[in-house]
Records
---
Amino acid sequence: MQRRRINLPLNPLRSFAVASRHKTFTAAARELGVSQVAISRQIAILEDFLDVSLFERGVRSAKLTDVGRAFGQEISGLFDDLERATERMISHETEGTVNLRIHPTVAHYWLMPKLMDFTRRHPDIRVRFDTRVEPLDFRGTHLDVALQLGRDDWRDARSRKLWDEEVDVVCSRDYLMSIGGLSQPADVVRGDLLHSHYRRRAWEYWARDVGLDLDTNRGTDFETSLLTYSAAQQGFGLAIGQLGLLDDVIAEGKLVRPLDMRLPTGAGFYVIWPTTVSVGVKTKRFIDWLLDQVGQPREFFRSGSADKT
């Protein structure tokens, strides 16, 4: 006859295991990051489930019963074993993974077309993308490395510049014909301006650099540059294109640069890694591979020594 399995109340069991080790609700609450009341409530749930008293509660304190003390000694080690097994699993799962922070636009237009080469050279290393758009801070994260646009001012990190950011007006060939072409910066007033939420002042900076009085509040806004460039390819208007990212798209004729004016922004695209922890071999290989893609000297391995896992 098959034995009926008990639907164990794991959260109350965990709370009790910690409380029995510390012998106080206060210390257990501090370790688990919850309130003392929450610990007391979880243990009460367990007591109801077991139909026994695990703690004797006084006005200002709680004391383990004999049953509670024996039960705590028996299960506390089980939770320690479970935590160690989980840590081993996570370590094994991530030991061959590079956790990369990268903006979606950079991933789509620049990294993805090249990444198969890295996979071929290092088949045992996976790259996991974190595409959140927020200030880069390696503390409290599992990030190994980042590819970001900025000015080399990241905290607790080292970096290498991959390329300088340069911009130009881009659009589709059909859209360019529909507005009668562009031969000088002032002609952009004939077109519809496309904006990205995270680069909302791109047109303002471009107009300032070319000496043009342009109403940059008109046009269509998109959440990301990825959507903005897609809209430009589909003929919705003019965009301020980041040339290092869009080189392949421009070479394929999907976007054109009618003014042919490369304007540096003063920012650059960097590969960044933390200095607060040691850099793993897998991350070093990925960083060197990124530098290879732009013809920069490697940071960690001599050429040829890191081409295979």
---
Amino acid sequence: MQRDDLVDLNAFLVVAEERSFTRAAAKLGTSQSALSHTIRRLEARLGVRLLTRTTRSVAATDAGERLLATLRPAFDEIGAQLTSLSELREKPAGTIRITTAEHAAITVLWPALKRLLPDYPDIHVELSIDSSLTDIVAERFDAGVRLGEALAKDMIAVRIGPDVRMIVVGAPAYFEKRPVPLVPQDLAAHSCINLRMLSSGGLYPWELEKDGREVRVRVEGQLAFNHTHMVTQAALDGFGLAFVMEDRVTGYLEQGRLVQVLEDWCPPFPGYHLYYPSRRQPSAAFSLLVDALRYRG
């Protein structure tokens, strides 16, 4: 492979990802005509058409998609290796992109970042708040944060938080009109506040467990939200029972604004883990962040 081959392949990658010669040319610092010539030269050399062009958009052909599937991880690996050279500098540097759920960002990531970053001004961190199970390789994130029981098996995982617990709560005013549920089956007679999952679009089933017996309950009620803050607020206002992270409502429990029920059906489970591809070559900045986040219990 010649040096020009890498230049042409990188040009194709940027055009395919931007889906526009105009945006790709601006990103590469070249003209649209020069970029178009580069792509035609690459297609002629390979003997296949890589892109389909219309007046409004650009899309990869089947051959182009196959090439993209090879190029993306290869160029990401090259980028990671180049970033690792920052280890030779006096201070770690670079940008780290992490996808995470909001709860983990607030309770685990931010407390560690606000301690670490003031001492390392050349480290930049971008947090993408997303409750869905993002493909960190395809979306070009350096790492993701998820609960321990939701990790892909081909990833390196580092525990960064303690065990967590989901609990069932309701307002005292709600229980003035309803009996306290004693077993999961009793939830069928209650108004429950549902959480709509962004990743699947479905309603989150309440996962309860006692003495090794697991029960997934599909609850019903007037309300459903796709954000846990509103689930908690609706419970505080007496609209029904909610299934929430314990640490989000500790203050309300202490104040008596919420009451916990089915406590013996809500055991703790593995907390948050940072995960990243096993083939990744960690930069000095990334290694420093991992060490700062590592849970030492």
---
Amino acid sequence: MSTALPARVPPSVAVAQCLALAWRGIVKIRRHPLVLADVVLGPAVFLVLFVYVFGGAIEGSTDRYLQFVLPGILGLMTLLATMGVGVALCQDLKSGVFDRIRSLPTLRIAPLVGAIGGDAVRQIVAIAALLGFGTLLGFRFQTDAWAVLAACGLAVAFALSLSWVWVLLGLLVKDAQAVQGLGAMLIFPLCFASNIFVPPGTMPGWLRGFVEVNPIRHLMDAMRGMMVGGPVARPVLWTLMWMVGFVAVFAPLALAAYRRSAR
């Protein structure tokens, strides 16, 4: 007999369950803080390498390139951090944690929402580390604090919506290394075939066509507009539509895969 809650549950109960399972992920980080090493050191390494190895060749000045590329690397780091959701999910499935959660009267989707919610801490740490290090290197915001906070919030929200892709992969593949490998195969082409590192105008026409429909491109335009100035409304609108699309498509698929795995 299924122990899942009825389809209709009070919103307060559903929210409480999701928050409790998200807190579980945060507690794991508190007990093993070294899991944050990649999101703390990774942004600094990427920023130094791209600014001082490619900056002079691309922009003619490392200072100017730093102003261009930091919002891009911020978006890249938050997107890369989302792969940790799928990896952690695989580990929980193998350890039997999800079997114990299923035996409790919890909402079916609560463990999945909780896994994504707990990952928000990694996203926030990655953003804080990169902005702090970028400021030390000489990056300067050209907008106000509210716009910068809005850019950071948009990056986190976009990453969390994209996390449903890795949740689905984690439920289907059920192998942590395979999820990480497949995730890299998906995320790196999207990130490098975008405007994260260079303006699309320098790319061949066929690649520019892909960049135009790449969701990462709209996120980057929005973040640069809110951090260093430029158009904001249109790219933010496109980014929000992509976020809704990710959740609308991949959340039901992930929930269906989770239900099948419970049989």
